[in-house]
Amino acid sequence: MGLRSLRELPKAHLHLHFTGSMRHSTVIDLAQERGIWLPDALKHQWPPVLSAADEKGWFRFQRLYDIARSVMSTESAVRRLLLEAAEDDAAEGSRWLEIQVDPSGYAAWFGGMTAFTELVLDAARHATTSTGVQVAVVIAANRTRHPLEARALARLAAQYAGRGVVGFGLSNDERRGGAGDFARAFTIANRAGLISTPHGGELSGAASVATCLDDLGAHRIGHGVRAVEDHRLVDRLAESGVTLEVCPGSNMSLGVYAQLADVPLRRLFDAGVSVALGADDPLLFGSRLIDQYAIARDVHYFSDPELAELARMSVRGSTAPELVRTQLLDEIDAWIAA
Ligand SMILES: [Zn+2]
Fold first, then answer.
1. 306-322 average pLDDT score
2. N or C: which end of the chain has fewer CB within 10 A?
3. What is the CA angle 116-122-128, rounded to 5?
4. Which residues neighbour 166 within 8 Å (Cβ) at sequence distance 6 or greater?
């Protein structure tokens, strides 16, 4: 049974952060080039040992993320990051990549959020042409900042709807700032035709997932795994068809679950919830997209037909146009038929 190549399984990648997607060798390169100090956790002790089960651990994660982001201050660095992210996805059978970025964290280096967003979109188009992986962009607001900032970002995202931006997200520590405060921002994004894909149910429990559904009109939820703490919510997710972007490697690294086997991937799947596997931040967690599928196979005993279904759910949960979806779904059928 099984042992078809996971690399050859066509899939969509729906949960990957911009700086977090960077190759480890690239952060080393760029830091050296620009004389930026890197802590050992990003050099010799990589990948870092993290645990964000408490606020201190989350702070450590954020601090490392911010240091890594500081190498992304030039146009060539941004272009390199997007090209390499697409190349790495291509090597793992990903055909459609939605990369998530908060432009406010980079704006100062590029003359503002609009200029940075245009650079990212142009780099994404080049990466698409060079690799064959179609790269789309999700603009994400930071939930630890003022909701007005999120609204400004939503208006920016709305401007580029249909021109490379496909969704609007909300990231950072969900224990700080309830998602409901950001409802207006999500309304702006939704009206422009962008899907709503906030993080929830990672560092907080099921109630946080419910808020994403009720107040933000979530089409997908980043993580959402802790929905299992409320079985009625699991039923609701299954009925609604909302996709959870489940990132087992990330959950384990951040201490959301103590072991990979504890990530409720099997439970959600068996309950009929749509699940799309994602890598989140390979730079900080040391595991990429293909590793998540390997975890499903090796730790959660997904059979090849079940792995094919995970890939189908990633495609169905994506914003890929109908033609791309049909083609990918056909290729997934061919993978399982082989
Ligand atoms: Zn994330």
1. 98
2. N
3. 135
4. 98, 136, 137, 138, 194, 195, 319
202 is catalytic: yes
pLDDT tens per residue, range 184-210:
999 999 999 999 999 999 989 999 999
| Three-class DSSP category at 93 | coil
pLDDT for 77 beyond 90: yes
Mean pLDDT on 132-147? 96
The pLDDT of 19-30, averaged and rounded, is 97
Ligand 1 centroid from CA 194, angstroms = 18
245 alpha carbon – ligand 1 mean position (Å): 9
CA–CA distance, 42 with 59 (Å, rounded to integer): 15
The answer, as to whether pTM is greater than 0.90, is yes
Task: With beta carbons less than 8 A apart as the criterion, state whether 57 and 94 touch.
Answer: no
Of 222, 2, 206, 15, which is closest to residue 98 (Cα–Cα)?
15
Is residue 131 within 8 A of residue 90, CB to CB? The reply is yes
User: 245 φ, ψ to 5°?
Assistant: -90, 95
Q: How far is the CA of 140 from the centre of ligand 1 (A)?
A: 10
Contact 173, 205 (CB under 8 A): no
CA distances from 251 to 44, 112, 176, 258, 318 (A): 23, 33, 19, 8, 21
Instruction: List the structure tokens of 116.
Output: 């940075």
Q: Domains (ranges, CATH) in the chain? A: 11-333 (3.20.20.140)
Catalytic residue among 202, 229, 239, 331: 202
Distance from residue 1's CA to the centre of ligand 1 (Å): 33
Question: Residue 142: enclosing H or E segment and its boundaries?
Answer: strand 134-142
- Residue 334: other Cβ atoms inside 10 A: 11
Contact 98, 195 (CB under 8 A): no
- Residues contacting 156, CB < 8 A, separation 6+: 103, 113, 114, 117, 139
